[in-house]
Amino acid sequence: MSAPINDFVKKYIQSDTVRFHMPGHKGCTFHGCEAYDITEIKGADYLYQAQGIIAESERRTAASFKTAKTLFSTEGSSQCIKTMLGIIKSVIGDKRLKIAAPRNVHKAFIDGCILLDADVVWLYPSEPTPGICCCDITPVQIENLLSQDKDIDCLYITSPDYLGNLADIKAIADISHRAGVPLAVDNAHGSYMAFLDDNTHPIALGADMCCDSAHKTLPCYTGGAYLHFSNKSPDSFLNNAKSIMSMFGSTSPSYLILQSLDLCGEMLASGEFAKKLAHSTAMVRSCKEKIEGYGWVLCGQEKMKITVCAAKCGYNGCELGDKLRETGIEPEYCDGEYVVFMAGISNTQNDFDKLAAAFKTLPVKPPIDEQIPGLLPAESRLSMRRAAFSHSQSVDIHSAVGRICALTVTGCQPSVPVTVSGEVVSENAVKLLEACGVEKINVL
What local confidence, expressed as pLDDT, does residue 126 receive? Predict the structure, then answer.
């Protein structure tokens, strides 16, 4: 099976054509991959008006994911998230966009709302969990909200979250559709779910649109992502999707990233990825069982993520991360409560054995107090857009209490907002900012 983008670039390299076009390296080697780094020359197609090799590769990928349409992004799920919001805005027209979402959204969602001047109805769990990553919202909460507020234009869910927790997308989709509200899902961490024996990808479970960060769990370069549309998505979602996506992206998309998406598509279509994934999920499951057998507490349902509840085992998560680095293991994410490990099909049995062995040598200790408070609801005084584009000043976080947040502040990673533009900065927010290592904040 061919990979049309990759095949085109290889032929171009072999042609030994003189490159009087961008990029400036002209294919000469500085880092090693320059020869493959091209621009929109004749025959290379154009990402936002794709009719040739990019369109062909996107169609093949859509077939693998069983979607009505799948679009490539070279700027990660961040571009796809903004595009989903832009599509909803284009459908409702002059009406002010109003979205319902659990608070553990990615910063790209906030940025999209600022650019589109949207309002958000935030959903919070009945019992706050430590940190900002998890926001356990039940289908009942969503059903109650949609029955009470008929002005909501879109329901937006993040699943999986950074800790590997999964929302009940099927139940949420059923509720959302009964209310006549489209469901958009940030599935950045879950691209691989479409290729499990039990397909748990959001599109398969009823979402209307979702984004996947292909680079997070598939063999793609950083920045490669997909925007998927359900077979039940209305034409109004599909017709202008490319044009809206172009509003949030560079006019010079990376052909290196496009080639990696293209080659990944070949692996998905051939069935090779699904076979490797089945083997990988078995190794992850076995590794989890070993770590739990040594007395460690894990959380999250995601099949390719291992999340250790460090505080419940007597450790600050950041300190535990440092101990693991001493053994040659680099986690995906650490905070006061958790350490997260993201697995991929390229991880070997030796990798998992090394991870399990590291936990075997570390003693489990009595639980320590929570290192990070839970995120509490905040009071909003101004629209996100008005606050973000107002004159502001940078102050120490402790001096910010009671003032209005100008520029949204996130913990990085996971780029989930601690305090959002337009909100009153609370004592709770300051404690979370401290935990994230943030010292200053812009306020009005």
Answer: 87
For 225, list phi and psi in degrees, rounded to 5.
-150, 165
Contact between 309 and 291 under an 8 Å Cβ cutoff? The reply is no
pTM of full prediction above 0.70: yes
7 CB-contact burial (10 Å; exposed 0-12 / middle 13-18 / buried 19+): middle
| Domains assigned to the chain | 4-93+155-270 (3.40.640.10), 274-361 (3.90.1150.10), 384-443 (3.90.105.10)
Contacting residues for 259 by C-beta, under 8 A, at least 6 apart: 3, 5, 6, 9, 36
Nearest-angstrom CA–CA distance, 360 and 19: 56
Amino acid 174: pLDDT? 98
Which helix or strand (DSSP H or E) is residue 210 part of? Answer: strand 209-212
Cα–Cα distances (Å) from 162 to 229, 270, 285, 300, in that order, read: 23, 29, 18, 9
What pLDDT score does 58 carry?
Answer: 98
- Which contiguous run of DSSP H or E holds residue 120? strand 119-123
Q: Check residue 1 and give its pLDDT.
A: 52
Q: How far apart are CA 98 and CA 118, in angstroms?
A: 6
Contact 423, 404 (CB under 8 A): yes
Distance (Å, whole) CA 151 – CA 395: 37
What is the tens place of the pLDDT at every residue in 352-403?
Answer: 999 999 999 999 999 998 778 888 999 999 999 999 999 999 999 999 999 9
Determine the distance from the C-alpha atom of residue 167 to the mean position of all C-alpha atoms in its chain, rounded to a whole number. Answer: 14
Q: CA nearest 150: which of 113, 171, 181?
A: 181
**Six token digits for residue 210:** 């979702």
Q: Give the integer Cα–Cα distance in Å for 50 and 42.
A: 13
Tell me the C-alpha distance between 444 and 438, whole Å: 18
- List of residues 6+ apart from 429 with CB closer than 8 A: 378, 418, 419, 423
217-238 exposure pattern, b = at least 16 Cβ within 10 A, e = fewer: bbbbbebbbbbbbbeebeeebe
| pLDDT, tens digit (0-9, with 9 covering 90-100), for 88-110 | 999 999 999 999 999 999 999 99
> Residue holding tokens 């809206």?
244
For residue 382, which phi and psi values (nearest 5 degrees)? -135, 160
Q: Strand 209-212 to strand 183-186: parallel, antiparallel, or no bridges (unpaired)? A: parallel
Rounded-to-integer distance, Cα 105 and Cα 157, Å: 8
For residue 444 the two structure tokens come to 């009005």
